[in-house]
Amino acid sequence: MATPLTERLKADGTAVSIGEYEASGGYRGLEKARAMSGHEVLDLVKASGLRGRGGAGFPTGMKWSFVPAKDDGGPRYFVVNADEKEPGTMKDRILLEGDPHQIVEGIAIASRAIGAEHAFIYIRGEYLASAAALERAIAEATERGLVGRPEEGRGPEIEIHLSSGRYLCGEETGLLNALEGKRPNPRNKPPFPQVSGLWGRPTVVNNVETVANLPHILREGPEWFKALSPGSDAGTKLYGVSGWVAKPGVWEMPMGATVREILEGKAGGMAEGRVLRGFLPGGASTDFLGPDKLDLRMDFDSVGKAGSRLGTGTMVVLDDKTCPVGMVLSLERFFSRESCGWCTPCREGLPWIVRILEALEEGRGEEGDLERLEDLSRKLAPGRTFCALAPGAVEPLQSALKLFREDFEAHLRRKGCPWK
Amino acid sequence: MARVSFTIDGRSVEAEEGENLLKAARENGVDIPGLCWMEKLTPSSSCRMCIVKIEGQRGLAAACATAAQEGMAVTAFDEELEDYRRTTLELILSEHNYDCGVCSKNGECELQALAFRYDLGVDQPKRITVPAIWKKTPMPVDRSSPVLTYDATRCIRCGRCIASCDEIQGKQVIDFIHRGARSFVSPSMSMWSNSSCDGCGECVQACPTAGLTEKPLVERFRSFEVERRVRTTCVYCGVGCQLDLWIKGGRIVRVRGADVEPNRGRLCVKGRFGYQFVDHAERLTVPLVRKDGELVEAEWDEALDLVARKLGDIKAKSGSSALAGLASAKCTNEENYLFQKFVRAVLGTNSVDHCARLCHAPTVAGLGKAFGSGAMTNSIPELADADCILVTGCNVTETHPVTSTYIKNAVRKGATLIVIDPRRIDLVPKAGLWLRQKPGSDVAWINGMINVMIEENLVDREFIAGRTENFEALKDLVASYTPRRVEQISGIPEEKLREAARLYAKSERSAIVYAMGITQHVTGTDNVLSLANLAMAAGQIGRPSTGVNPLRGQNNVQGACDMGALPDVYPGYQRVDRSEAAEKFRAAWGVESLSPEPGLTVNEIMQGALSGTVKGLYVMGENPMLSDPNLQHVEEALKAVDFLVVQDLFLSETARLADVVLPAVSFAEKEGSFTNSDRSVLRVRAAVPAPGKARTDWEIVAELSTRMGYPMKYESASEIMDEAAALTPIYGGISHARLDRETLHWPCPAPDHPGTLFLHGTKFSRGKGAFHPVDWIPPAELPDEEYPFVLSTGRMLFHYHTATMTRRSEPLNRFAPGAYAEIDPEDLAELGGADGSTLKVTSRRGSIEIPARASPRVARGTIFIPFHYAEAPANMLTNDALDPVSKIPEFKVAACAIEVLK
Question: What backbone phi and psi angles, to 5 degrees, belong to B846?
Answer without folding.
Answer: 175, -170
